[in-house]
Amino acid sequence: MILEHIEITGFRGINHLSLPLTQTTLLIGENAWGKSSLLDALSLLLAPQETPYQFTRHDFHFTPGNRETPMRRLQIVFHFRDDGSEQSALFSPFWQRDAQGARWLYFSTRARLRETEVTASRRFLRADGEALPPAGSEEATGELARRHPVLRLRDARFSRRARHDSSDGQARSAEMRALAADIDSLTRQLASQPHQLSDETLRQGVATMQQLMEHYFLVLQPAGDGARRSEPQNRDGAHGWRALDRLNQLIGETDSRSQQIVLLRMFVLLAQARGAAGLSSEARPLLLIEDPETRLHPIMLSVTWNLLDLIPLQKIATTNSGELLSLTPVENVCRLVREPTRVAAWRIGPQGLSAEESRRIGFHIRVNRPSALFARCWLLVEGETEVWIINELARQCGYHFAAEGVKVIEFAQAGLKPLLKFAARMGIAWHVLTDGDDAGNKYVATARSQLAPQDERDHHLTQLPALDMEHYLFGAGFKAVYLQMAHLPLSAAMSPRRIITKALQHASKPELAIAVATAAAERGEQAMPPLMRQMFSRVMWLARGKAD
């Protein structure tokens, strides 16, 4: 089975969330927008433990200013789809079929808080949300956690290390010795494959893989076995990381038994994150990976992510790293945005963009500007001149775009329509600034076509009353700057077009933009063109609307 959807209502920091999932889902979102609450719900309710998690009053969501509501409710529903691998007879009474004949399993946890008393129930549901008869549900719930447990991989520095008694320590020592023997066998088997890998490269690669899991992820070592943690880069250094990268390539290129052995070893290492809790040989865990960039250099992060991506398990990762976003297809990225009545989950989906649009977005945003995915609002401009000058002019008006979540992006290279479609699908507000020429008129038409019926044009579109930004600024009080850059006297009797052309002969468009920005800083906010101030105000309204 694969977890394809989760719905959360009233749990901790989430008032309501409906989240679709893929084989790999990369979650982004600002602090306090629900990422940790989501991971908590998964790890607490799908953990292979003897007794179910017991809710407390702190697990219930409350509206700010209304903490003492007499009764509160929470509900978490997991939607599992059968991918053909599930054969357990315990689930037979609870399978639901959709119109296409696919089998689904809907598992619900509900809880109610009345005064100080918390009551909870766990049931399987019909497709319409009604509870199925409870007979056999307890056994099926246990089987669900046994076959599809959650492994939460987190920075080992912030996790408690479990204490084990002597017998547990002896057992773990035996497990580690067996693991070491298996890895040694793996190295010998890989060496027999027709790939150009030396024994030393294999040793370093496998060792770095193991050390990475011990160093970054919470992997509990047996007590008293004398094993010490050390950072992987302190053992084999860059050689170890290069060897691990080469090992990743080998795994990705071959379908031989070596691949299965490597992935099996990785699974054993990951399974150790469960501590003393054993995992079934039939288990297909869901991996939760929290901010893997926390301790890893971007190069090491790339190697690590490639390794995790090879593991044939469903994964949900959180990140604040543009580097990690650049390694992930945009189809796998999901933005969580807190809105007044819900935590919205935004993603483009499988049919959101055409192949050509996806290629353009992949290059223009994911590869070149991954940080744009964290923005609350995009200010889309035609070219480099606007990028150079807009941020500085906004600063002169008291607006700091970086702190407000506004990203200025030129759209000429990618095309305006794909960017607008992508922004709408990802829950990013947008505003377009265009020139007043024929091309600008076409961009205006494109922007209008992407507006929803309830959207106001003025909130999303500004068109310059001039051919381009240079002519607009020339007529908005910065004529002297262009004359100076053109090496002409202030009394020169020439048309604006000729003056601008001469200025561009002596300086590039970015240089002219910087000169205008410098002049604006010297003159102060009162010299700012009114159209610019109006546009900045609208952009800030859009950005802050996404933050409220």
Question: What attributes does this structure have?
Answer:
548 residues, alpha/beta, Rossmann fold, 3 domains, six-stranded antiparallel sheet, six-stranded mixed sheet, 16 strands, elongated
Largest sheet: 6 strands, antiparallel
pLDDT averaged over residues? 81
Distance between the amino and carboxyl termini: 37 Å
Number of strands: 16
**Class based on secondary structure composition and strand pairing:** alpha/beta
Fourth CATH level, the homologous superfamily of the largest domain = P-loop containing nucleotide triphosphate hydrolases
| Count of structural domains | 3
Could you say what the CATH architecture of the largest domain is?
A: 3-Layer(aba) Sandwich
Q: Fraction of residues in helices?
A: 40-55%
What is Rg?
A: 28 Å
- By CATH reckoning, the class of the largest domain would read Alpha Beta
Number of helices: 18
**CATH topology descriptor of the largest domain:** Rossmann fold
> Outline, from the CA principal axes?
elongated
Q: Please mark out the parts with pLDDT under 50 across 5 or more consecutive residues, or reply none.
A: 160-167, 218-235
How much of the residues is beta strand, in percent? 15-25%
Seen as an oligomer or otherwise, the chain set is single chain
